[in-house]
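Page 37, continued from 36.
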């Protein structure tokens, strides 16, 4: 008897569950999964408490509460000059993960090809397959993790329908440059592609680097579905309040699938996130400044431990090459790390089709409190990490 639907064949359990369970089992310090260890703004938590007390506890409208959709539209206009109709061009999702799922289910038919930046967030792999799509990886290769024009163009065929973009990019920390974004735009326009862009780290960029939404480039607004979330920008990952914005037809395609997934969620949290976007606009900037100092602390420690970090331009992840320490397999390294150093990290090979391109890479998270990052660094420097 086949115990699961064949559409799930070959999709492994998420690596985050596996490595976080390892952290719990061993008592190791978790520098793997990317969730903060402190909450977002107190005023936002209070706004949620107030909404609970005021009876905002029943179903919200399927596309999201009017005040949150309006706040999202104001956010896009304020930061990027993007004008949106909150009634027709904004949908609230259960985090960006549901946004990804609903976008792919709403846009991709069986056999359609989806070009996707590799390494990729692992839900991309799962949802492209569940939608019946065919992955066409566009690999950002170590050590620089830049978008190469020939690699992108080679990935596009007459069957390609969607280009799935992620910038700032998890797990590499790359923020696509103006030239790289223009390359994507040129290819998308030339081949009449829909671009689904995951911008959850939009506000978490560091000195010398700025996030530019691809929807702002000429010819791209009408073909771009933008996904984002409050979880990363406001350190409220457990609330799972995200959104999708873009032209009516693309947002409608997403909503047509989303209505059969969660329909709606987080009713008392939605007005609180509206408050966050309107009343706490500086909070993500302060978070980014704090994260930049933690990034530097972790990178210095990783370098001292012989792990050759690539300094990320955005997100809250650092990628290192473990081959200089004699390791050839990131999973084996990460499985040995709790005993050797009392630390957990994520093997980056889990995010590749081309496993050999990522087998020697490991991802570390610096979204923890500075004393936690410092303790992780101390353990790594003191440990024997050579194979």
């Amino acid at each position: 008897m086949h115990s699961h639907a064949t559409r799930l064949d070959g999709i492994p359990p998420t690596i985050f569950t596996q490595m976080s369970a390892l952290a719990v089992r061993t008592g190791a310090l978790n520098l793997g999964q990317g969730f903060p260890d402190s909450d977002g703004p107190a005023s936002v938590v209070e706004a949620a408490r107030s909404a609970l007390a005021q009876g905002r506890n029943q179903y919200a409208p399927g596309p999201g509460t009017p005040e949150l959709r309006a706040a999202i539209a104001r956010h896009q206009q304020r930061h990027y000059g993007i004008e949106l109709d909150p009634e027709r061009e904004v949908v609230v999702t259960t985090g960006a993960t549901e946004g990804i799922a609903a976008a792919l289910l709403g846009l991709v038919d069986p056999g359609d090809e989806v070009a996707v930046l590799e390494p990729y967030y692992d839900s991309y792999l799962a949802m492209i397959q569940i939608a019946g799509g065919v992955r066409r990886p566009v690999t950002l290769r170590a050590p620089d993790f830049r978008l190469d024009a020939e690699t992108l163009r080679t990935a596009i065929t007459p069957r390609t329908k969607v280009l799935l973009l992620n910038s700032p990019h998890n797990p590499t920390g790359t923020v696509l440059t103006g030239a790289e974004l223009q390359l994507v735009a040129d290819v998308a326009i030339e081949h009449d592609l829909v671009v689904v862009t995951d911008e959850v780290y939009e506000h978490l960029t560091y000195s010398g680097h700025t996030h530019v939404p691809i929807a702002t480039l000429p010819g791209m607004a009408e073909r771009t579905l933008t996904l984002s979330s409050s979880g990363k920008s406001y350190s409220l990952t457990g609330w799972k309040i995200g959104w999708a914005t873009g032209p009516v037809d693309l947002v409608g395609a997403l909503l047509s699938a989303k209505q059969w997934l969660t329909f709606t969620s987080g009713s008392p949290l939605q007005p609180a996130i509206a408050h966050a976007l309107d009343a706490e606009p500086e909070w993500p900037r302060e978070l980014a400044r704090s994260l930049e100092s933690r990034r530097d602390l972790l990178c210095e420690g990783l370098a001292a431990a012989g792990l050759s970090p690539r300094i990320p331009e955005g997100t809250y992840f650092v990628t290192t090459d473990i081959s200089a320490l004699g390791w050839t397999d990131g999973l084996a390294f990460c499985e040995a790390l709790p005993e050797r150093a009392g630390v957990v990290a994520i093997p980056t090979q889990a995010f590749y089709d081309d496993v050999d391109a990522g087998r020697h890479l490991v991802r570390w998270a610096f979204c923890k409190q500075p004393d936690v990052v410092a303790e992780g660094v101390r353990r790594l420097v003191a440990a024997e990490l050579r194979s």
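The radius of gyration is 20 Å. Flag for discussion at group meeting. Residues 283-304 form the longest helix (22 residues).
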